[in-house]
Amino acid sequence: MLVSHFLAHLAFLSNVLLAAAVFSSEEISSALGTSSPVSLLYQFNETTMFENLAARSNGHLLLTTIKQAHVYSYDPHRNVTSLLYTFPKSASTLGIVEAAPDVFIVAVGNWSGRGPVAKAVPGSFSVWSMDLNNNTEQPIVSKITGIPEAEGLNGMTTIKESSDLVLIADSWLGTIWRVNIKSGNYSKAIEHVLFTNTSDFSIGINGILGSILLES
């Protein structure tokens, strides 16, 4: 498999130890270099742990959660949230990306923990489609494919050169999967030593953002 063009950057977390912290609005404003106040929009309960988000054309945010296989919808106009969908027989929702107008692709599987103690369950991962074009808050959800060889699906991005393809980072395996969202076919697109985890940090490549033309 040949990577013939690298048209944009891959943004990934590799060999980096991250620490989670809670900051006050004053601390956030100071870090951003602005005197503008930072205000709380919505407070979820303390057991909710978000992993990723995607924005809809109407301004709503879709939020995935690592401790439950949920996708939430947040409406900033009314400042309300709703549980949009819960995926069956899974514990986590991870990467999410819009592949077509109001059609979102979601990586689903089993993760626990965060940072250096994060753990994934190999063989538990699959890729799903959520279609929100029915003008309601009830999506049409369908499974695209399972990826039993995957060990820890995470961030996801589309490919400008093909509306049928998405790339998904595998933080545990240290690779990027290519998935055809029409046919369900998948394969390893890129593997690199920089994508792998370390003895200090259990996950490798994380978020990805870019446009890559891949040739078989």
Describe this structure in words.
The protein starts with a strand and ends with a strand. By secondary structure, the chain is mainly beta. The chain is globular. The N terminus is likely disordered. The strands form five sheets. It has a four-stranded antiparallel sheet, with no helix packed on it. It has one helix and 16 strands.
In short:
With 216 residues, the protein is mainly β.
H/E series, N to C?
EHEEEEEEEEEEEEEEE
**How many β-strand runs?**
16
Q: Between the first and last Cα atoms, what is the distance in angstroms? A: 5 Å
Helix content: under 10%
Largest sheet: 4 strands, antiparallel
Count of helical segments?
A: 1
Q: What is the averaged pLDDT score? A: 78
What gross morphology would you assign?
A: globular
The low-confidence parts are 1-24
Question: Which structural class do you get from the secondary structure elements?
Answer: mainly beta
Topology record:
Elements: E1 2-6, H1 25-32, E2 50-55, E3 61-65, E4 70-75, E5 80-86, E6 92-100, E7 103-109, E8 111-112, E9 119-120, E10 126-131, E11 140-146, E12 153-159, E13 162-170, E14 175-180, E15 186-191, E16 212-215
Antiparallel strand pairs: 1-16, 2-3, 3-4, 4-5, 6-7, 7-10, 8-9, 10-11, 12-13, 13-14, 14-15
Task: Please name the defining characteristics of this protein.
216 residues; mainly beta; four-stranded antiparallel beta sheet; globular
